Amino acid sequence: MGTINVTAENIFPIIKKFLYSDHEIFLRELISNATDATLKLRALAEFGEIPIEQLGNPKIEIKINKEKNTLHILDQGIGMTEEEIEKYINQIAFSGASEFLNKYKNQTDTTHGMIGHFGLGFYSSFMVSDKVEIFSQSYKKEFPAVHWSCDGSPQFSLEIQDKKEHGTEIVLHINEDSKEFLEESRILELLNKYCKFMPIPIKFGERETTKKISEDKESTIKIDNIINDTTPAWTKQPSTLVEDDYQKFYRVLYPSQFEDPLFWIHLNIDHPFHLTGILFFPKLKNHIEIQKDKIQLYQNQVFVTDNVENIVPEFLHLLRGVIDSPDIPLNVSRSYLQSDASVKKISGYITRKVADKLESIFKNDRKDFERKWEDIKIIIEYGMLSEAKFFDRVKKIALYPNTEGIFYTFDEFTEKIKEIQTEKNGKCVYLYASNKEAQHSSIQSAKEKGYEVILLDSPLAPHLIQKLEEEYKDVSFSRVDSDHIDNIIKKEENIISKLSENEKKELKKLLESNIDKHKFTINLENLNSKVSPFIITIPELMRRMKEIRQMSGRGMLGIPEGYNLVVNINHELIQRILSESDEVRKKQLIEKSMELALISQNLLHGERLSQFVSRSFNELIEK
Prior knowledge:
Belongs to the heat shock protein 90 family. This protein is α+β, with helices and mostly antiparallel strands and 623 residues long. Helix content is 37%, strand content 21%. It is elongated.
């Protein structure tokens, strides 16, 4: 058996240069250490180990000295003795916070806010510094203050120092490559990014304010510029907050967002893990851009990342807000999540809480749920497609509006249409439209039959339809313009053909010689004589596959572009084409009929279109 030896000469350069992916992290780490030092002192006061007066009103202060190229981080916390500096600073990867937590783990919940775990954060200071100094006075007044200094090599100096107030000051001598961290604007940017909600007040300079000194006089005074909110909304009990509190907090998180959130979910759990947070539902309509910077992940109020890929299910990346948990497993540099069983549990909990909230709104105020539907349907549909348990929870509250704007659940709509829209083979057919204007004439044809048409216009509709057909074997979905309505919902009734078999063969041959048969599949149908003579449709399965592939960014590779041409052989115009003796005129009739059918499929929208097409076919007959 042997022992692995790790020397400071070997490990120190690695820690300084490669432990953290971004050098700016040093400020977060040093302020986190200062926060822990202050929280330790607060805990000792609560435990009765020091008088409460000794705690005072502690804050952390950040100072810049451009003349000396130094950046200072000062706290009024527990401080360190000479022996403690030897233990916590000179021993790499020995965490003072972890040791403190272990010592007082059974005392109270006060220690929950401790941030440090690895004992490495202090050394991030050498990424931006030629030299680092520590001036520290322990809260134990019998021990003298100490001064520690190191230039980034394994050698250091440690000596007794004069310092009366307990606490620690870290002085960074910023190196030539890191002068940006001597700029106030840069430091303020980092404080707002990482420290905006830390639990101890952080002072960065001063600001002017007015003070009333008499009824008609005001005086301008300078006060501490505190950059953080130490008790953000997610750290409070939901019962203590009102709607305005949540709205204001949303504005703090997203100052450039103009619209208010629709509603929110306040997360608060202590077992089997500790997690708090607030998730906001923004107004989305049909936007499905997955942005991974809308939910912010914190650990004990310290910003970690805005990439919550593992901790929050992907469909909820459309939300905004904050999640805070000391139990989220992070890598050593606290820059990203590590895979862990607790991550799945947390993710499952968040999913359940979202489902609970949606069910609550639906049951308590359905009208309100319907008003919000257009803005939240993308989230619900995405969740139904990606999470089986979420699908089971929300399938009874997902809404399907008809083209008149009346909302139904799946069960409600099935009950409404099952008698009239069940075709001869026993399947209940869900007719749907993706665009009310473009598919107006087909919708009208369906309504004339007494059928109901639902509106599925989200980009996820093709995927959702597939999912629903898999889940409910006795139903099928067909877009209302995928075929003539009598072919979509086939009944037992038979319409007698006005053409003989020879006339059908003649018509088929005539059409194939004048129409691109590679693009159009010609189907001769015995339809009502009032139905248009030429109807161009896209087969439901082919169109659905096309839409799914296009949404996934794969285009139409492998799927042929083709249409059905439904020819109503009972229409008067067909008789006119067959009886026309002039071949040129016959060809013109076919071409004009095709042109009108193409217009009906692609160009004009709405009621004017159906009137125009109907009138045009009649004009062809008259001519």
